[in-house]
Specification:
alpha+beta; four-stranded mixed sheet; two-stranded antiparallel ribbon
């Protein structure tokens, strides 16, 4: 796996959690592709990772769209 070399932590969250952190003043960035990310102190909260949302990522691999 080619994992980036950084101390940053990426977290995929649901809309409710995302909204709570946004309301607490986390800085929101919108990428050119429309992807929204909240950041603070090296943490990155996002609604999707590689096109998968929190519900997709919580599924067992046998039923998930993730291929290893």
């Amino acid at each position: 796996m080619k994992i980036r070399s950084t101390n940053d932590i990426d977290l995929v969250v649901n809309q409710s959690v995302y909204d709570k952190f946004k309301d607490k003043g986390w800085k929101e960035f919108v990428h050119d592709d429309g992807k929204r990310v909240l950041t603070r102190d090296g943490y990155h909260l996002m609604l999707q990772w590689m096109g998968l949302n929190i519900h997709d990522l919580q599924k067992p691999l046998s039923t998930s769209r993730i291929s290893l």
